[in-house]
Write a structure and sequence with these properties.
The protein has 239 residues and is an alpha+beta fold. The chain has one domain. It is built from 1 helix and 7 strands; from the N terminus they run αβββββββ. Strands 1, 2, 3, 4, 5, 6 and 7 form a 7-stranded antiparallel sheet that branches. A hairpin with a 7-residue loop joins strand 2 and strand 3. The longest helix is centred in the first third of the chain and has 54 residues. The termini are far apart.
Length: 239
């Protein structure tokens, strides 16, 4: 008895063209995934860098605003003059006049008076390529004849310059002297109506491609004012 011949069929493989098409499709998918992934990484790094630069600037401007808004009227027992034009007693790198503010904190670690003398310095940083450092100089112990050395508090880096302008009610001035009598009231120990702080950040780029940053301006109204010696006429009937 003859058995029927059974035909054995080999499994059909992929052709070279099909393999090439699959490889190209897989490469396109990988390229798309790679672009999305590294795009997200670059966006994250850029966002992180922006936050790292914005937080010190926001912190510094908040401290400057707080100090200027709580300015102590010059001429008191614990406050001296407000002079920005005199440079005889200024330290190296000082950009603001030495002024007195009342935002001191009294606790177990800092038992000083609420009034403190503050000035702002612009010093060379450890890496000059990253600009200069903004430093806050604070003196809290104002009573002794030999006062303690001022404490320097680092605020931020990457600055090119910082300037303080003073508004007298009609115009901005680049200098202020509280010992000069106010032409309106005739009194000395006066303070400006407002103080403007211009912060110039370090420009990005190098050489001709460097772009100058727009200065950051902070305007702080000054609430405290010297008392006038002009008598106010009372209204109403005579007795």
């Amino acid at each position: 008895m003859k058995t029927a011949r059974q035909t054995v069929r080999r499994p059909r493989g992929f052709t070279l063209l099909e393999v090439l098409i699959a490889v190209v499709a897989f490469a396109i998918v990988l390229a798309a995934i790679n672009g999305v992934y590294y795009g997200a990484i670059r966006l994250r790094n850029k966002t992180t860098s922006g936050l790292e630069q914005a937080l010190p600037l926001e912190h510094a401007t908040e401290i400057i605003k707080r100090d200027l808004a709580n300015l102590v009227l010059p001429g008191g027992t614990l406050s001296g003059t407000l002079q920005s034009g005199s440079t005889s007693n200024r330290v190296a790198g000082q950009r603001s006049p030495s002024f007195y503010t009342s935002r001191g904190v009294i606790d177990d670690s800092s038992p000083w008076a609420a009034v403190k003398r503050v000035s702002y310095l612009l010093l060379d940083g450890t890496n000059r390529a990253n600009g200069k450092d903004l430093v806050r100089s604070v003196s809290r112990n104002l009573l002794p004849v030999l006062q303690d050395q001022a404490e320097q508090q680092w605020l931020m880096t990457g600055l090119q310059d910082i300037a303080f302008l003073f508004y007298d009610g009609s115009q901005w001035r680049d200098a202020w002297d509280s010992t000069t009598a106010d032409p309106r009231s005739g009194l000395s120990n006066s303070v400006p109506k407002a103080i403007k702080v211009q912060i110039q950040l370090l420009s990005e780029g190098t050489g001709r491609g460097r772009q100058r940053e727009v200065p950051i301006e902070l305007v702080v109204p000054i609430a405290v004012q010297a008392r006038t010696n002009q008598a106010q006429q009372a209204t109403g009937g005579q007795r």
